[in-house]
Amino acid sequence: TLEKTYAMIKPDAVGAGNAELILRAAEDAGFIVVKAARTTLSRERAGEFYAEHRGKPFFPNLVSFMSSGPIVAVCLAKTNAIADWRALMGPTNTLVAREEKPKSLRALYGTDGTKNATHGSDSLVSASRELKFFFPNMTLDPVPEGA
Ligand code: CMP
Predict the structure, then answer these.
(1) Strand pairing partners for 74?
(2) Boundaries of each Nucleoside diphosphate kinase-like domain copy (predicted)?
(3) Exposure check for the chain: N or C terminus, fewer CB within 10 A?
């Protein structure tokens, strides 16, 4: 089915100047970039976005990293966008991605287990929450004609 997902280019990849390359890789893989907005997260908003990880050992580093510089918030549309974007990103940990999926976005553009270049929603429910978090006025369902 035609889906939208929330994709995010994280501060490591934006800071390295790789945001455009990552958006182009998405388009080359058949995704439509419905929206892309550069913004910076406060610590508070980064913590709210990643609330499900609150209390985990990596949470403080994650919040520091995600608020350390600009990100690009992206809405992607495609058939099976949620699963296909996660496949294009590769394994969460960039060091694992380099071993297991060397052409994936995290292998190419990430740094380590926390600084991993990109994020992608893991389910329809997450995609809806995450798209609303960054694009509160966006229509979520159905995907508009031409989007
Ligand atoms: P992301 O897919 O955005 O979801 C949670 C983020 O937490 C993850 O990418 C990484 O940036 C970060 N992270 C750091 N350590 C871990 C870990 N052990 N497991 C999962 N995510 C981690």
Answers:
(1) 7, 36
(2) 2-142
(3) N
